[in-house]
Design a protein that fits this description.
Distance between the termini: 36 Å
Number of helices: 11
Strand order of the largest sheet: 4-3-8-11-12-1-13
Shape: globular
CATH architecture of the domain at 23-131: Sandwich
Bound molecules: zinc ion
Low-confidence stretches: 1-17, 390-397
């Protein structure tokens, strides 16, 4: 009897471990709309109003939801009802998806895996997509990585996007969802339609990166580091042992390796004076403003006084990176720069180059993230449960 109970509990825990995590993504939150049309893309879809089941919509039937006064009204071929707070559409099979249109806008129809709930706030509708993590990861990789890359590249993007998502699930907690669908979190426009990405996501299913303390890492990435990545603390003050500056020879011939910006001498000098209070009193001081060549990635511009943080210059002048030289010829000041983006973590174009050279996605990830481990996220859940039940200092998220 005891053995049966033990067996049952073991089977139950294994089932729970294998269950895929669902993420709650706030979608289209930057748009203001009062109408939405949701259709079932395949199979039937159950409809709930304020938690009470109202019926089903069939494939290709649409449920139109409008905000009228302070309540939600909904109509389909066979349904007509109102809800005070929330309408939910849940496909009968978890792997099915929903098609979504905003009748008031020109936005192209989108397809979302998982279920969609519609609520209201501040006189407009708010949408949340509850999506299984692997389908979400595929959608993010499609939006963030683009087309026509090697399978190994899509695999490493899958691991880093999945890790980033799980590490940031508290970002929107006060708003009642976990992540948004914009650049603030990770860009997500719904279901991934590219087979090569879906294959890469499945091949790395559940895999995430953790540090030496088995904590999920901040899997930051950028377009091109210009030949040298940046320490996390150089940009955001917080040090992370896995986000260390490293020389990168792989991105130097890639599309965003170089950039150039020309300003007049007057524009440049008055900007430095106005913004940072640089007022050269001698020839050497003027020279420091007009000609500068970093030997490696610097934090400050040359020998100017007061110090000029390059990250502020990048923000103010909307430069591609903080990694640039300054040369002055006559009345023109030319900034010749390298790379594109903040430079911390994974360099996407360097990683694409490594993948084209035939390197494995695990080697590429370890090239950009120092001393990380690749583990199945379900193992972390197991460690966390152990930790909760024993109260010991074990691995935490
Ligand atoms: Zn966000
Ligand atoms: Zn690079």
């Amino acid at each position: 009897m005891r053995l049966t109970a033990l067996g049952l509990s073991l089977t139950l825990s294994l089932c729970l471990m294998a269950q895929e995590r669902t993420l709650r993504i706030g979608i289209l939150r930057e748009r203001n709309f009062r109408s939405v049309l949701v259709m079932s893309a395949k199979g039937t879809c159950a409809v709930f109003a304020d938690g009470v089941r109202k019926g089903e919509i069939q494939v290709n039937d649409g449920l139109r939801i409008d905000l009228v006064g302070r309540s939600l009204t909904a109509k389909s071929l066979g349904l007509s009802f109102t809800a005070k707070e929330r309408i939910e559409l849940v496909p009968r099979v978890e792997t099915n998806s929903l098609r979504l249109r905003l009748p008031e806008s020109k936005m192209a129809e989108r397809t979302y895996p998982g279920s969609i709930s519609v609520t209201t706030e501040g006189g407009v509708l708010k949408l949340t997509n509850a999506v299984p993590i692997e389908a979400y990861t595929a959608g993010v990789v499609q939006a963030e990585a683009g087309k026509e890359h090697r399978g190994e590249y899509y695999k490493l993007q899958s691991v880093s996007c999945r890790t980033y998502a799980l590490c940031n699930v508290r970002k929107h907690a006060p708003e009642g969802f976990e992540l948004c669908d914009g650049v603030h979190c990770q860009v997500y426009h719904g279901a991934c339609k590219q087979d090569s990405i879906n294959i890469a996501v499945q091949a790395t299913k559940g895999m995430v990166m953790v540090d030496a303390d088995i904590k999920l890492i901040h899997a930051l990435f950028h377009s091109n580091c210009g030949g040298e990545t940046v320490n996390a603390e150089d940009l955001w003050t917080k040090r992370e042992p896995y986000l260390r500056s490293a020389i990168d020879t792989f991105c130097r011939t890639e599309p965003h390796a170089n950039w150039q910006r020309t300003l007049t001498r007057k524009e440049w000098v008055s900007y430095l004076e106005r913004r940072f209070g640089v007022k050269p009193t001698n020839k050497a001081g003027v020279e420091a403003m007009l000609n500068y060549e970093p030997t490696c990635r610097d934090l400050y511009l040359g020998n100017t006084y007061p110090l000029v943080p390059l990250k502020h210059v990048r923000e103010d002048l909307k430069l591609n990176s903080t990694y640039f030289t300054v040369t002055t010829t006559g009345e023109n000041v030319v900034l010749n720069g390298r790379g594109f983006g903040h430079g911390v973590g994974l360099c996407q174009e360097g990683a694409m180059h490594m993948a084209r050279q035939g390197q494995s996605y695990t080697d590429i990830l370890r090239h950009y993230y120092t001393d990380v481990h690749l583990v199945d996220v379900n193992t972390l859940d197991f460690f966390r449960d152990e930790d909760r039940s024993t109260g010991s200092a074990g691995p935490k998220r």
